[in-house]
UniProtKB/TrEMBL annotation:
Involved in the catabolism of quinolinic acid (QA). Substrate binds at R102, T137, R138, K139, R161, K171, E201, D222, S247, G248, G249, L268, G269, M270. Keywords: Glycosyltransferase, Pyridine nucleotide biosynthesis, Transferase. This is Nicotinate-nucleotide pyrophosphorylase [carboxylating].
Length: 297
């Protein structure tokens, strides 16, 4: 999917509400620095200082829109960044531009970091000759999930379920509470009705077979190491229509070991939980001059 089109997934009202909440968190009271800068018209350049994938333009736009500033982008969403790169220009009253600066940079840096990690994971999978789905998980930052899930998509990965309502996931604790795999799956199947799929976390081939027999659509083989591929092959031989997801302890380094002909999805919590943020900065420049990134001391 074209990263530029992904912005259509984000409702404008949701973007505005998120931007408001982030700005209120950063400045809930008096903004004393506004007296230093004043309200004169100003302009700044957004610079990318580290390599990666650009992601998060809609959030950046929404934040500056809430403080009466306009953003002009020089690079499209999903661009591969080669530092130091001019990414965008922002114009507006000086005190407003600086009010939105840190919030916008934080959001863009985190979103781009997730997209960069996702792109690296997808590339590793394709280089291993595997054409399945690389996905994230629900291991997201509270209050920041939409940004991180969006970043996964820009990076070419799948978001997996957005929340508990997107898929009925039967985990190990659900199995214990329900009294067994079969009981848990049958309850989940009834709750899901026709609208949702049911996925079951399994710790052995026996549990996977039991889950498939009870009506699971997908089976999650979590923290399987040497026995992952034989287990997936045996399950697919009996239930070819059941999807198989591999998860648990997967990194960009060991991901190729999880790629196989009987694995449909590989999910990595580290794409959202451990992705390093990219480095961006916003530098004001005088009207009529050519913006140049400041030389390092």
């Amino acid at each position: 999917m074209d990263p530029e089109g992904l912005a259509l997934l984000l409702p404008p009202t949701t973007l505005a509400a998120l931007a408001d909440s982030w700005l209120r968190e950063d400045c809930p009271g008096l903004n004393h620095a506004a007296l230093v800068t004043g309200a004169a018209p100003s302009q700044a350049v957004l610079w990318a200082k580290s390599p990666g994938v650009l992601a998060g333009r809609p959030f950046f736009d929404a934040i500056f829109a809430r403080v009466n500033c306009q953003v002009s982008w020089l690079l499209p969403e999903g661009s591969k960044l080669v530092p130091v790169a001019r990414v965008a220009e922002v114009r507006g009253p000086a005190h407003c531009l600086l009010l939105g600066e840190r919030v916008a940079l934080n959001t863009l840096a985190r979103c781009s970091g997730v997209a960069s990690a996702a792109a690296a994971a997808v590339e590793a999978a394709r280089e291993a000759g595997w054409a399945g789905h690389v996905a994230g998980t629900r291991k997201t930052t509270p209050g920041f999930r939409l940004v991180e899930k969006y970043g996964l998509l820009v990076g070419g990965a799948k978001a997996h379920r957005y929340d508990l309502g997107g898929l009925v996931m039967v985990k190990d604790n659900h199995v214990v509470a329900a009294g067994g795999v079969g009981e848990a799956v049958r309850g989940a199947r009834q709750a899901a009705d026709f609208a949702l799929k049911v996925e079951v976390e399994c710790g052995s081939l026996q549990e996977a077979v039991e889950a498939a027999e009870a009506g699971a659509d997908l089976v999650l083989l979590d923290n399987f190491k040497p026995e992952l591929h034989p287990t997936a092959a045996a399950l697919k031989a009996r239930f070819p229509g059941v999807g198989v997801e591999a998860s648990g302890g997967i990194t960009l380094v060991n991901l190729p070991r999880f790629c196989g002909p009987h694995i449909d999805v590989i999910s990595l919590g580290m794409l959202t939980q451990a992705a390093p943020a990219l480095d961006f900065s916003l530098k004001l420049f005088a009207e009529g001059t050519a913006p140049v990134y400041p030389a390092l001391p």
